[in-house]
Amino acid sequence: MPKLNCTRTGLATLLIMAIFLASGCVGARMGVSWPSVGLITVNGEENIALAYNNNIALLNPANGAPLRLINPISGQAMLDSENNPRSWILHGSDNEGAQFYSLPVIVDDETMLAAANNGRLLKLDSVLLEATQSITLADKVVANTLEADGILYVPYQNGGLSARSIVDYREIWRFHTEEGIWATPLLVGEMVAVSSIDHHLYAVDRSSGHRIWSVDLGGSVASTPLLANNRLYVGSFNKSFFEISLDGEILSRYDTQNWVWGTPSIDERGVVYVADLSGYVHALDSERNLSEIWSNQVAERGIRAGPIVYLDRVVVASRDGRVYWLDRRDGALINSREIDNRPELLGDMLLLEPSATLNIDVPLLIVSSVDEGRLLIAFEVDGRQAWVYPR
User: Fold this and answer.
1) Which SS3 state, helix, strand or coil, does residue 63 take?
2) Where exactly does CATH 2.40.128.630 map onto the chain?
3) 77: which strand partners?
4) Sheet arrangement for strand 191-195
5) What is the pLDDT of residues 216-251, one digit of tens each?
6) What's the CA gap between 138 and 45, in Å, rounded?
7) Given this structure, which CATH class describes domain 226-348?
């Protein structure tokens, strides 16, 4: 998994190890990350995509069951050697022993690209679920890639961002960083915003790969910034949260209780919600230089993932194995749910609104854990559990 510069971060490496990351002093191993979750459209329907360790799976949002592989000619379910229906689960063991911490990217109705932690980019036949090509990358990948206008932006575990054509997969340009990139790049007009463990937030010209500006945030930056109000909002590992202009000027700074790892959320009033690794949630006024509205210690342990805002609530998931629903007006606890065996909840959450393409008629909050027996847990907005994957 990602490399951390031991001389720069000192004792911070111990905390990284505690939350299942390997530092630059420790070799990569299985089970050192958390699930990556998102939505992917297949055959006109949106499905949950889950990447974790050796597998990528596509799941039905209504019940969490893996999709069936369908023969495009007969329309019937595809069968394995024992005549059992095949599920849409890509196994790294069948693909050069790949580990997956990055979600696949859709190229067309039949093709996906999946960046792996073995430094390969797999071109997948998403109908037959086979790798048709394996492209060598410059390094391992632990964050989601970004596709825009036929270009795939690939962040590298040990440093650097490359732009590749999704037509022939050639590298168009590569941007250098001193340390790794552990967060998905963010497209902002004609520039790409890149967070790096080398303490900097970079703005890179999307066409040439040249640096437009960079700003030192005093600590490692491991999350994708939030773009709102024509500004960027991002936290760092120096216990700070920043408001940054699109020309790279720090406009405001708020001191948190601990590292900020997750991407913040913002509501229609301009209130920004930030969580930190001491279990605090902070509500800040983006129209008043990040002035504090409220700050509450909610969880017993750290909150790595960014908060979710829905209606009158803010939802966070913690390393203590619990999910918390807060009143967004004052941060008061409304509800909490403890996951069986209290596995660490480290991955980003996913909020699904009711829609025909999702085949759900109530909102669902998807929470990920590091427990192989319950990688994903779906809750209704009132906290009732809807389903668990795997069962």
Assistant:
1) coil
2) 226-348
3) 70
4) 186-188, 191-195, 200-205, 211-216
5) 999 999 999 999 999 999 999 999 999 999 999 999
6) 34
7) mainly beta
